[in-house]
Amino acid sequence: MILTKNEERMLDGEEGYAVKKSMEILVALGNIYGAEKLIEVGSVQVAGVSYHNLGDAGLEFLNELAKDGKVKVLTTLNPAGMDLENWRNLGIDEEFAKKQNLVIEAFNKMGIIISCTCTPYLIGNLPRYGEHIAWSESSAVTFANSVIGAKTNREGGPSALAAAFVGKTPCYGLHLDENRVPDTHVEVTAELSKFSDWGALGYCIGKGAQSKIPYITGIKDANVDELKTFCASVVTFGAKPLFYMKDITPASENVQPPKEKITITERDIQEAYNAINDETEDIDFVCIGCPHASIKEIAQIAALLKDKKISPTTEFWVATSRPMKQLADKRGYTKIIEEAGGKFACDTCMAVAPLKGRFRAIATTSAKGCYYSRHNMMLTKMGSLEECIDAGVTGKWS
Ligand code: F3S
C-alpha cells in the first residue's frame, strides 16, 4: 500500500501509541485485501461494546488505546451489554455493570459519542450518498450501503476503532465501485402483508444469495422500519452487506439486473417462518427493537399496549437508542408502555446483553433477533407486532 508522508509519520509513532497501533492494523488489513491506499472516512461506528463479548482482554486493549487515543471523525458506538442508566431494572448484576461501565469510560476518553445503538442513522450519524465510512454493525452497514448509498466494508471492532483514530480506512472491497455490482437477481412475487414478513424475506434472500449482492425486483413499497429489519435479516442469513431494490433504494437506478435469477414466493416466506419459529406455546420474554426501535415503532407499541397489562410471567422489552427513548418520554409513549409493565432497554439489545439461561422462549418481530436468541439458548417465535404484544399480555403464542 502506498502511504502519504503523514501516514508514514503516524505509522512511525509520531502521533502516539493509539495512532501507531491503528496504522499497523489498517496497513495489515490493506495488504491482506490488496488496497492501494487509505481513504478518508466521514464517520465511524464501532461494534464490540458489550463487556459480555469483550471480556477482560478486550477491556485491557481499549484501556491501552484510551491512554492517548482521540478519534478524528464522528464516531458512535454499537449497543452495550446493558442499559447504561437502568441496568438494575433489567436484571443485570452489579459485577457486570461495573465492567461494562469501565468499557464505556474507555470509549468516552477516546472522544467517542456514547450513543450505543445499531441505528446511528436514526439519531444523527447519517452519512451522505456516496460517502466513505467505516461502520461495524452488520445491519447498520447494510442500511448505509444499500438504503443510504454510502460506502463501507463490514468492519470488525478493532479496525473500526483504528479508522476512527486515523480518520481513514484501506480502500478495498465495498469502497470500490467494481465490487458493488449486483450478481444475483431476486424477483419477489410474495405479498409482504405484515412487518415480520420483511425478516422472513431477508432470510430467504440471504440464504439464496449466499455472499452475493442481490438486485431485488417486485417490491412495490417499503418504509424505513421495513428496510431496517430487512437489512438486519438479509445479512445475518448470508448476503453481502449491500443490495439494490428496484425503485426503492437510490443506487438501483445506476445498475443493471444480473442474468442469474431466483424467485421468492409466498411458499418461501412460509418456509422461512417454519425455519425461524420453534415449537413452543409459552413465552417468557418479548423483545421489540432489533434493529433498535424507531419512534414510529414505539408509538405503535404504545398504541397496542394502552390499557393492557403484560403477563406477570413475561418480561417485555423495547430495545432502542437513548435519544429515541427521550422522544418517547416527551410524547407520552414511555408512560403507557411502563404502566402496562413493559420496560425500555436503551443502549443494549437481546443479542449483546448477558441473557443466556435467563429466558426460555422469546417472541419478537425480528428474524435477526431470533437468530441471536437461539445463540442465547432461547426458543424463538417471530411474528407481527400485534402477535408479539398478545404474547406479552397472555404469556402465550397463539
Ligand atoms: Fe441491533 Fe442487537 Fe438486533 S445490535 S440489529 S438490536 S441483534
Description of the molecule:
With 398 residues, the protein is α/β, with parallel strands linked by helices. Helix content is 40%, strand content 16%. The protein contains 14 helices and 15 strands. It has helices at 5-11, 17-33, 51-66, 94-109, 138-148, 157-166, 197-209, 224-236, 266-276, 295-305, 322-331, 333-339, 367-375, 385-394; strands spanning 38-40, 43-46, 74-77, 113-116, 134-135, 168-170, 184-188, 214-217, 244-245, 261-264, 285-293, 315-320, 343-346, 361-364, 379-382. Strand 3, helix 4 and strand 4 form a beta-alpha-beta unit. It is globular. The N and C termini lie far apart (58 Å). The model has no long low-confidence stretch (mean pLDDT 97). Bound molecules: FE3-S4 cluster. The site of FE3-S4 cluster (F3S) has 16 residues, from strand 11 and helix 13. FE3-S4 cluster binds at residues 78-79, 118, 137, 139, 232, 290-292, 319, 349, 351-352, 368-369, 372.
